[in-house]
Design a protein that fits this description.
This protein is α/β, with parallel strands linked by helices. The protein is built from twelve helices and 19 strands. The strands form five sheets. Strands 15-14-13-16-17-19-18 form a seven-stranded mixed sheet, sandwiched between helices. It has a four-stranded antiparallel sheet with strand order 4-5-3-6. Strands 7-8-9-10 form a four-stranded mixed sheet. The chain starts with a strand and ends with a strand.
Length: about 400
């Protein structure tokens, strides 16, 4: 028989039996793909060994934790062609660098001697399939490892053992630190409540299209999913322009507009002190001290001080930036300028929202004696925010009639 044995607390070092004989599922080669998909779906394949062709048949290695009779019964009741189980000689396969497979192996090893065989599929079905990476920090989604089964499993572990578990999860995903998202705090700052699971600090530094970012990922939000919009905004020429970024955060867009779009000056408005700390760090790291002016405080207080100076206003708050649309109209120069309005909108309502937004902007412009033609030459679809809801950006041009 063959078996992978892992002892936690020892850097998950692999120790293999010297024998190369193991249980295999054999079928005719023409049915091999169907069998492989079925076994993979049911988490029965041992990927540490290489499938083998024996004359006209394909042999696929099986995990030893499953009883042969149970596996045979499952196959016979699910597939219409003949599959035979035998012990044969396999060659060891190179371990895949695919992070999903590495995570799967790591979790399997932790569960192997802790959980009954019949319970393992329940645990494995709840492991995360998505995460974000900032520097060497892996940020799991909110519900990762938080099902009832996983909560009981982890709560029964001593603190040091839980730390070792989180360490191994981080390493399997190519990181050195691990965190898990939690809902944004229902406060005015929309504070991040990300939980640091393994590591000493949440501070991260990384490059994004040539722009350096730095911030504490446990204190502020940063969506890597907006990378296409940050790329796009940095390609818009803003030479000699004065730009206002009403929700600057850690500089998601301010830095790109100053460094890549070559704006003359970006007035970055931000309320959250943790975001401001990251923004100040990045302003210095990118040598943009003369290009970015930071305005700390509430937009209702900072934006009125910037009326009439801007060629362009960026409004990047989700789910809606509408509270500052009237301010943004007044921040533009008398001759007009551009607005970039971020919004979460239902897929079926995008066209109607676009028309309604232009009506509202024209109303604000008329109210403040801006005799402008206001049109939207472009609407950018950034990403899916939730089922049937999209994050979009409306580019609006305001100019004198």
């Amino acid at each position: 028989m063959f078996k992978v044995v892992t002892l936690y607390g020892h850097d998950m070092a692999d120790r293999y039996d010297h024998t190369t004989f193991g249980l295999a599922a054999l079928c005719e080669v023409e049915n091999g793909e169907i069998l492989h998909k079925f076994l993979d779906k049911n988490e029965l394949i041992d990927s540490s060994w290489r499938p083998k062709r024996i004359e006209s048949r394909l042999a696929i290695p099986l995990l030893v934790r499953h009883e042969p009779k149970r596996v045979q019964d499952l196959i016979d009741s699910s597939l219409e062609f003949n599959v035979e189980l035998q012990h044969i000689e396999f060659e060891k396969a190179e371990l895949s660098n695919n992070p999903h497979q590495q995570l799967h192996r790591t979790v399997s090893r932790w569960l192997e001697f802790e959980v009954d065989d019949v319970e393992i599929p329940q645990f494995m079905s709840k492991i995360p399939r998505k995460w974000e990476r900032f520097d060497d920090l892996i940020v799991l989604q909110q519900h990762a490892f938080s099902s009832t089964e996983w909560n009981i499993f982890l709560q029964n572990k001593e603190t040091d053992t839980r730390r070792d578990f989180w360490r191994d999860i981080a390493h399997s995903l190519g990181g050195k630190r691990l965190a898990r998202q939690h809902p944004i705090a229902p406060d005015k700052l929309r504070s991040s409540q990300t939980e640091l699971l393994y590591g000493d600090s949440g501070w991260v530094e990384f490059l994004d299209h040539g722009v350096r970012f730095g911030f504490d990922a446990t204190q502020v939000m940063f969506s890597s999913g907006n990378v296409t919009e940050r790329r796009r905004i940095g390609f818009i020429p803003m030479n000699d322009e004065v730009v206002i970024d009403a929700y600057a955060g850690v500089g998601y867009y301010s830095l790109h507009m100053a460094k890549r779009s070559l704006a003359k000056v970006v007035h970055a408005c931000e309320l959250n002190p943790n975001s401001i700390k990251g923004l100040k760090w990045a302003r210095e790291a990118n040598n943009l001290e003369e290009s970015i002016v930071i305005h700390e405080g509430d937009n209702n207080e900072t934006l009125p001080k910037l009326y009439g100076i801007a060629d362009r206003c960026h409004l990047g708050l989700l789910p809606s930036s509408e509270p500052v649309w009237e301010h943004a109209i007044q921040c533009l120069k008398i001759a007009g300028g551009w607005l970039h309005i971020h919004m979460n909108v239902d897929d079926s309502n995008i066209d109607a929202w676009r028309d309604e937004t232009l009506v509202k902007l024209r109303k604000f412009a008329k109210k403040h004696n801006r005799n402008w033609k206001i049109e939207s030459p472009h609407l950018e679809s950034v990403k899916s925010y939730s089922p049937h809801v999209r994050h979009i950006v409306l580019d609006v041009h305001c100019c004198e009639n």
